[in-house]
Amino acid sequence: MSNFKMTLQYEGTRYQGWQRQESTDNTIQGKLEALLSKMTEQKIEVQGSGRTDAGVHALGQVANFHADTEMTPEEMLEYINRYLPEDISVISLEQASERFHSRLNARGKTYCYRVICSGLPHVFDRRFAHMITEDVDIDAMCWAAGYLLGTHDFKSFTSNKRGKKSTVRTIEEIRIERTGSFSMKRQGIEDEIRFTYSGNGFLYHMVRILTGTLLEVGTHKRKPEEILEILASGSREMAGELVPAKGLTLMEVRY
Question: Catalytic site residue 153?
Fold first, then answer.
């Protein structure tokens, strides 16, 4: 049995997240396992670097699987992309060491969350960005983000109330930038805010709750210093709203 590592992209709009489910075959993992099992004529289990939620996208998701096959990685890649749905694509596939595990060996991840501040509909951004009508204070959000850097217990920033695992994580960087959305770049209008998070790992809904909280700072519903109180409280109720999944993209997994 050989171990294969693949990097893939997907638009998560019409899928029920990454993880396979008994109630539906409409998941990214489920689609991959069905196709790989047919290709190799054996049951294949795919291990992902993490579970993206329903509606979340990926530019650099990483997964691995074991298979007994005489096909080369190049032949497998061609077959997979020929039969995958058009909103899922494997962009690289290679044989990995036997000990490689896409989740257990991951050392860090980067996510990007897109927010568009506009009162106008954005047809070409609607599936990839959260739309708000208010403008935001970038400086206030950057100030607040500074309190989140480093190693903290992020229990307040997860929706998983029953988890027994540690909620301590390290955020290495939060970058908040104003740019032009796809719809408005030609007009030179900077109506999009991009939140980029890099860290050693992220909890269930963590990036979306962090973004919702920072947006409340940016719209002056909170003060930047309140981040310290939220962290200390360990209470989900203290943090901001959970912003929609469609604005979130997994950009990179580091090993």
Answer: no
